[in-house]
Amino acid sequence: MPTSGSPGTAWPISQYVLKVHSRCDLACDHCYVYEHADQSWRGRPMVMDARTVAAVADRIAEHAATHRLRRVSVVLHGGEPLLLGPERMRQVLAALRRRIDPVSHLDLLMQSNGVRLSEPYCDLLAEYDVQVGISLDGDRAANDRHRRFANGAGSHRQVLRAIELLQTPTYRRLFAGILCTVDVRNDPIAVYEALRAVRPPRLDLLLPHATWANPPIRPAGRATPYADWLLAVHERWTADGRPMPIRLFDALRSTAAGGHSGSEWVGLDPADLVVVETDGTWEQVDSLKTAYDGAATTGLSVFTHTVDEVSRLPEIAVRQTGLAGLSAQCRACPVVTQCGGGLFAHRYREGTGFDNPSAYCADLKELIVSLSARRDVEPVPVTAPVDQDGTDLPDGLLDRIAAGRTDADAVRFLAESQLAITRAMLVEVADGMPVTERAGWEVLVRLDREAPGAVEETLRHPYVRVWAVDARRQLGTDSALTAQLCCVAAAAAVRAGATVEIDVPMRAGVLHLPSLGTLTVPEPVTGAAVLTVEPGRWRLRHKAGTTLVSFDGELYATAPQVTGGHWRANRRLAFAGRTILFEDLDPHRDCHDWKAAERPDASALARWGEVLSGAWSSIEAELPHQAAAVRIGLRAVVPLVDDPTGTLRSSTARQAFASVGVALADAPATAVMIAHEFQHSVLGALLDLCDLFTPSPAVRLTVGWRADPRPVEGVLQGTYAHLTITEMWRQRASREAPGGPAHQRHEQFRAWTADAADALLSSGALTPAGDRFVRRLAAALTP
Amino acid sequence: MNIVENEQVSMAERLSELRRRPLGEIPVARALDVTRTVMRHRDDAEGGVEVARFGSVA
Ligand code: SF4
Fold first, then answer.
1. Does the beta-carbon distance from A448 to B24 stay under 8 Å?
2. What is residue A532's three-state secondary structure?
3. Which strands form A203-206's sheet, in the order they lie side by side?
4. Which of A181, A260, A420 is opposite residue B41, by nearest beta carbon?
5. DSSP state, A696?
6. Of the candidates A703, A622, A707, A731, which has an alpha carbon nearest to the alpha carbon of residue A670?
7. Percent of chain A, pLDDT > 70?
């Protein structure tokens, strides 16, 4: 079984650090770029020029398209990226967005010392949706111990000014968090209090870079000063009720429970990151520069080498091998699954290279052991165990779904479960909002009693859950996002024909009511507006005036009269003897691994109508055992942009149950795409209820239908979707003379699916329920 | 209607309670338990690590 890091395999790389400016306006003495072993920055251009940025963007886009990466993140780094100046910065951001956005969801981030952050800069970063992390080491004394200008003056005042700017309501959503480098000579509580005071959405506590050749500073007589320091912070943070996430602690908590670390500092997760220097050379993770001169060098360049070529380098691949890539001492260590040998760079020792435990080994071990002892006494909320045998599911459900015989009852059961989960998420979001902002929630609670059907219909909209997942992650940091709960409530009120008045958030002159449509006002106003909903009419009072909407009877059935604005209704298309939502408005629909299309005009919509009705005929004929489930279950189709290469594109978003994204194609191809994506939706909903596999970040399996090895969940999803595709091609082949193209397709899909099922069964990653699921699936391949 | 307090009840049962109970009467702890369970390995389902959120700079 190939696992991560097998030689010669191009592992997908989703994170890129771009050194856009190689100099810094601070001269921090703990910075690895200028103060450590590697001095390669001296020979490089000061800034990354436009040609290099374009080449990087091309390489990333090409890699993301090949590996179908749903998201990629690009971190602008330096030196100090703000030294670029706003004009050059705009060119870099525009080039990255222009090239990568059409292919994959691009998260743009920047790590900055904050010294030069200004309002014009923030406006630019907001325009390109760039998240900003600021480096701050604590209170003034702690910060200015290292973070100083070349003339020796401290930077604390300038950094705090930058953070204040990021805390204003306009820019708050840009603030990604604080990165603090630990110095054990600083008082841990003073540092913690100073950092908490600036209310960062997230805090990273980093150990200063060190290796066995250049060991950590340890004040005399103390064996584990870093563990002691971190434990002191942990104690205060816990006593405070964990006011913000601290990545290191969260990672150790997650790995303690067998989950991912989500961090390269601890744990066994594969690290999929490469760095591009200002001259366009590809480098390995930049922290390696602390080890020895040239440690991060690959000898490859964006002008001559693809990301796949970089990813195949053994030194990159070894970072993906999890346990197998660690030293013998780490592999035998009782806390290895949590520690993972620490940061790769910190393992360096002359002679043995990186085949050692971390230079922080003693501290890491002490930290992990002490935290787990604390967890034993702490009242940690225990999440009830999840079914691993399938015994909690209704009788026969697992087997029917596994065998591609999902029937109407099964899909109804899953849809009800999904609705319940969305309700739970709304409770969580509402509970996390300040009491003063819960008016929307109060309305929804009232409507749930008075008009439960209207609330239910609104909450079944697949992108309400997508929003809720996002909102629960952003609680306390993005109030404009959580405030969209009011839009959900307003949509339910419209459905119920109720009378309510409610504050709603507008962005750039747009108010979206999920599953109903979008109201646009003439001015691009952002901020709160007051929406009054009455049966047959609404009034929206906003910063630029008042907009009135009135309609007779059913909103869907009429074209409303609008003054002072423009209403675009969600449209529905005939499918399977009923109608489904054609979702081309909801801002949360763009969560698929291919970009959502803009709203098609009337003639394109008519074409979509023909295609969907043809696709249904095909599904009905070719999937007789599942057509009823698709008919009852499918709620929405999201049009995706066409792939310029002509490749068919379809997608399911994990949180958007019963919605499929497809790019326009002919009816038979669309039938296959819908059936394929609907399978993903069904399996996703099942996975919410029952564990079919144990997440093992280092296990990757090779499948016939993709070039890159995939994680277990991806293979399980792919195999399950291909079961249906196999069945459709079997039906198509039965109408064709032997040896024809449909026979070949059927054979191909059957072989791929059978091989992938075998790979899953021998992966060791399936639970008893998963094993049973895959065996049923494999058996169903031979009708 | 009583929310089942026993942590050992199945996910399906917990969801069916959430489905039936009025929104305003769902205990927050019960909702949190379900969302945590559902999101148990979703937040990072791609399997990658968030190495670069702030870069690896010290
Ligand atoms: S504690 Fe030390 S030996 Fe154990 S995994 Fe971490 S670095 Fe390796």
1. yes
2. strand
3. A203-206, A175-181, A130-135, A105-112, A71-77, A15-19, A273-276, A281-283, A297-301
4. A260
5. -
6. A622
7. 90
Q: What does the DSSP 8-state code read for residue A154?
A: B
B43: in domain: no
Rounded mean pLDDT, A275-294: 77
Residue B49 lies in a domain: no
DSSP result, A405-460: ---HHHHHHHHHHHHHHHHHHHHHHHHHS-GGG-HHHHHHHHHHHH-HHHHHHHHT
Distance, CA of A605 to CA of A572 (rounded, Å): 10
ipTM: 0.76
The β-bridge relationship of strands A527-534 and A500-506 is antiparallel
**A428: nearest CB among B32, B47, B57:** B32
User: How many angstroms does the Cα of residue A247 sit away from the middle of ligand 1?
Assistant: 19
* pLDDT confidence of residue A384: 54
Relative to beta strand A15-19, strand A71-77 is: parallel
Q: With CA atoms as reference, report the closest residue to A234 among A40, A395, A367.
A: A367
The CA distance from A143 to the nearest CA of chain B, in Å, is: 13
Q: How far is A588 from chain B (nearest CA, A)?
A: 17
What is the band of A695 on the pLDDT scale with cuts at 50, 70, 90?
Answer: confident
Domains and CATH numbers, chain A: 15-373 (3.20.20.70), 433-569 (no CATH), 578-780 (no CATH)
Half-sphere exposure of A720 (CA within 13 A, CB side): 30
- Asked whether residue B8 is assigned to any structural domain, the reply reads yes
H-type alpha helices, A582-711: 602-622, 627-633, 667-689
Asked if A420's CB is within 8 angstroms of B34's CB, the reply is yes
- Has residue B17 been placed in a domain? yes
Per-residue pLDDT of A519-574, as tens digits, reads 999 988 888 899 999 988 999 999 889 999 998 877 766 788 999 999 999 999 99
pLDDT digit string (tens) for A54-68? 999 999 999 998 888
Q: Which long-range contacts (CB under 8 A, 24 or more apart) does A405-408 make?
A: A405/A625, A405/A626, A405/A780, A406/A626, A406/A629, A406/A682, A407/A625, A407/A626, A407/A628, A407/A629, A408/A628, A408/A629, A408/A632
B54 pLDDT band (50/70/90 cuts)? Answer: very low
Mean pLDDT of B15-24: 90
Start-to-end CA span in chain B (Å): 55
Asked if A431 and B7 come within 8 Å (Cβ–Cβ), the reply is no
How many domains, in total, are found in chain B?
Answer: 1
- Are A457 and A487 contacting, i.e. CB atoms less than 8 angstroms apart? no
Q: For residues A36 and A290, is the Cβ–Cβ distance under 8 A?
A: yes
Instruction: Indicate the range of A315-329, A567-581, A699-713 predicted with least confidence.
Output: A315-329
Which residues does ligand 1 sit against, CB inside 6 Å? A 329-330, 333, 335-336, 339, 341-342, 357-358, 361, 364-365
Please tell me which residue, B35 or A169, carries the higher pLDDT value: B35
Identify the pLDDT of residue B56: 26
